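Record type: monomer structure entry
Structure origin: computed from sequence
Chain ID: A
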Amino acid sequence: MTRPRILSGMRPTGALHLGNYMGALENWVRLQDEYECYYCIVDWHSLTTDYANPGQVKDNVLEVATDWLAAGLDPERSALFIQSLVPEHAELHLLLSMITPLPWLERVPTYKEQQQQISEKDLGTYGFLGYPLLQSADIIIYKADAVPVGEDQAPHIELTREIVRRFNNFYGPVFPEPKTLHTVSKRIPGTDGRKMSKSYGNAIDMKDTPDAIRQKLRPMLTDPARQRRTDPGNPDICPVFDLHKAFSPKPTQDWAAAGCRSAGIGCIDCKNKLAEHMLAVLAPMQARRRDFEARPKDVWEILIEGSKRARATAQATMDEVRAAMKIRY
């Protein structure tokens, strides 16, 4: 029986961090058992903000792919590919741009948010305004039944559904409306308590060594009420406890919560125990990563083969699109 199909992607920003893993990648690995999966490294999307300095994109693609494989994405079960190796994405994006009202793009919440957050770059470009439309093309060119996303990306999927309805109304039923497959994501704070992000400089990478992870955890912010070892704290507002909930088993979580509230343990004790469980989760992935790091040509071959598979699907869709629009000559 044919399984439903999903599409999701990541920008190549370099080695992935724990927020990437717990927020998306861990779920992608599980979804391979239920869906026909297309996972795309969206290198064109990285140019919407880093268009002036694209020199690191190729190296970053390799880093992301290596982390994907280390985490358990299986090229036998999923198409792992590079967006720009499937140029049909760009063709569909162009055709969709002809029918998409400008206000639909301007109202996407992340459009103004990112302009404010990334104020040091000139984001007054069509590429930045139109990246949600390129994202829609990425999804519907594979006729994805669903897209696994966090809550912040849900408006992008709704935009895609609107675009599908508009296209199908003009040209006939070519595309299904993709559903939003909400990812139940754990809160993964960075070492400064904010959301983990490379741009904040607060990330713990999946490939970090045990010593590097312990060093990053040591100064990590905790409940500000715990000024001294004897001060009781509140684990519900402690970023370290959020990481315990992501990486530690329930008995350790209970130990950390009780010890924090009673001041029975210090923050260093809590962080050391967190490091133990974090390293236990990462150890098998890091072993696989070292194997793939030693064989970069094999990683590129996986991406090239996955891109060929993805392109065959995309070409078939574009043949339908051209026929529906009566521009198949």
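Annotation 1: Strands lie at 5-10, 36-41, 78-82, 146-149, 179-182.
Annotation 2: The two ends are 35 Å apart (CA to CA).
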